[in-house]
Amino acid sequence: MPRSARSPLLLAGLLAVAGAAHFARPRSFDPLVPRVLPGPPRGWTYAGGAAELALAAGVALPRTRRASARAAAAFFVGVLPGNVQMAVDWRHRPAWQRAAAVGRLPLQLPLVLWARGVARNAQGRS
């Protein structure tokens, strides 16, 4: 299978693993929810996990791949404030945790570009 054919499936797999992790270990994700959002963080954690699982399914299916990959790109932009929140909140943690929190920030751009590339290369309309 050529790399371009694997790319959507790898993106779908990443989204599925991340989405499932929101349900398996929600306490790990609750602190990422920006405090300006209404309601308890756990609801946002579950909503984010459900969104990632839905996006994974959509990206995996050729018929919905283009629209879902575009939505995934927007989702990756949308979760950037949570990653910024984590970097700010973790600035007094041990060095390895600070590095992990700050290291997440530049990863958003490649994720957005990857999802946009999957959308661009998708066949058909969606």
From TrEMBL:
It comes from the Bacteria. Residues 1-23 form the signal peptide. Keywords: Membrane, Signal, Transmembrane, Transmembrane helix. The chain crosses the membrane at residues 44-61. This is Cytoplasmic membrane protein FsxA. It comes from Streptomyces tropicalis. The lineage of its organism: Bacteria, Bacillati, Actinomycetota, Actinomycetes, Kitasatosporales.
